[in-house]
Known about the structure:
- The protein has one domain: TIM Barrel.
- The chain contains 17 helices and 13 strands.
- It has helices at 3-16, 37-40, 53-60, 77-91, 102-105, 116-131, 147-150, 158-176, 189-197, 212-239, 259-281, 289-302, 314-320, 350-354, 376-389, 411-429, 475-486, and strands at 30-34, 95-99, 135-141, 182-187, 242-248, 251-254, 327-330, 334-339, 356-359, 395-399, 435-441, 460-462, 471-473.
Amino acid sequence: xxxxxxxxxxxxxxxxxxxxxxxxxxxxxxxxxxxxxxxxxxxxxxxxxxxxxxxxxxxxxxxxxxxxxxxxxxxxxxxxxxxxxxxxxxxxxxxxxxxxxxxxxxxxxxxxxxxxxxxxxxxxxxxxxxxxxxxxxxxxxxxxxxxxxxxxxxxxxxxxxxxxxxxxxxxxxxxxxxxxxxxxxxxxxxxxxxxxxxxxxxxxxxxxxxxxxxxxxxxxxxxxxxxxxxxxxxxxxxxxxxxxxxxxxxxxxxxxxxxxxxxxxxxxxxxxxxxxxxxxxxxxxxxxxxxxxxxxxxxxxxxxxxxxxxxxxxxxxxxxxxxxxxxxxxxxxxxxxxxxxxxxxxxxxxxxxxxxxxxxxxxxxxxxxxxxxxxxxxxxxxxxxxxxxxxxxxxxxxxxxxxxxxxxxxxxxxxxxxxxxxxxxxxxxxxxxxxxxxxxxxxxxxxxxxxxxxxxxxxxxxxxxxxxxxxxxxxxxxxxxxxxxxxxxxxxxxx
Length: 495
Ligand code: NOJ
């Protein structure tokens, strides 16, 4: 792309976006950035770390990842975490959201064998964050299951996994809970379950769409609830922290104002966000009724003995509902949704269970990621929907961000943040919604799963050709720093 084209694209992008608000974020609003263990740490087999499903997947099927990349070294944060903290300090963020690598702590996945060097790595990271006044927000599971547990069936094996995850969670609370006050059990479990065990494109690469992917979700939800109860009963009193589960969703906008398109968009969000959120965050608990009904009906027609969607007993429903101290939401983009006749019975799968058409408007501005169009207004609508559907919980945006090809002069990312944050701020100020924190994904460029190092989300550039993995602030880092310091998105805010 030559400079003129870039310039032209930026002008069109600016014109397509509304003016950002000149209101200010509330005084106690918290800003942070995020990363995840496999995406940044490297040190994949160092100091006693065990193999996880992403190590195994990238080493066994290198062609499934752009340029055959993997996370063996990634940003080398295993060795360079103090530099990461310098960057966080420079940004002035209140918190840093990162994840623990289960197999760095428990190389075989179970608590009989603890890797002390791995434990010390996280103790040191947490200590250094606290010394610099940065609150650690810790995710227990960001997609990197210990490989030995996958060999026993992984997440679809409910009987195995709920207790193992609970042991791991209890260990993490015991080891780090005196310093960590914000816990996220799972990150975007939909990607773990639907991409990992449904379509089979993510590790561990199992294709069991609409069967194992539902079992996986069932296990994850039960595991989350058990970890929450463990925290509640054994740790809350002394540690006084907060626990949540991160769920992701696009906003789904009806393609027209016809009742059918409105119904289709609602069905789509219930199958996406509601699948995980309803059992935990909805006052009635359980899966969304539309999922229960449709999957049961299609399963029957397909000849299954019972619904492919596992059932919660009424005791389980009660045990799971309300297991949150705030609602964590990851969101990046929007899709339009159109009603269609149900797909004929034949192919078993999640998308057939939903039977709608979702698409993105070709006029929306693009990023480097095919799925990520810039649609700031969708976020405000999503926040409103979440607030209304789940009875006004406190909401923390635990991820939001924009991809490009890594340029330091990343005007596109600045516009994205400015306009998404503006919509979030309007949701707070105009719609009265209790959003209390925002997390920019990501602190630095990192391993973007199937896309390797080709799509960049960082506020800091990382030079992956340099063995030092040199980090350089992008223009967006300056922008975000200013927002964090002033709570204002434009040059001058109203008081
Ligand atoms: C969601 C995931 O949590 C994160 O791992 C990923 O890199 C970003 N979205 C961007 O795709």
